[in-house]
UniProtKB/TrEMBL annotation:
GO terms for molecular function: oxidoreductase activity, acting on the CH-NH2 group of donors. It holds the Pfam family QH-AmDH_gamma. This is Quinohemoprotein amine dehydrogenase gamma subunit structural domain-containing protein. Residues 1-33 form the Quinohemoprotein amine dehydrogenase gamma subunit structural domain. InterPro entries: QH-AmDH_gsu_dom, QH-AmDH_gsu_sf.
Length: 34
C-alpha cells in the first residue's frame, strides 16, 4: 500500500526513491480509474 507521509518530511528527504515509487503507484492507480 502507498501513503503520503506529509507529517514526516524527513522521509521525503532521506528516501527519494521511495517517494518516486509512491508517486508512480498513485499515477498507475489513477490510470486504472477505480
Amino acid at each position: 500500500s502507498c501513503f503520503w507521509p506529509a507529517h514526516v518530511p524527513d522521509q521525503l528527504n532521506h528516501s527519494p526513491d521511495w517517494t518516486s515509487k509512491c508517486a508512480s503507484a498513485q499515477k498507475d492507480w489513477r490510470k486504472l480509474d477505480l
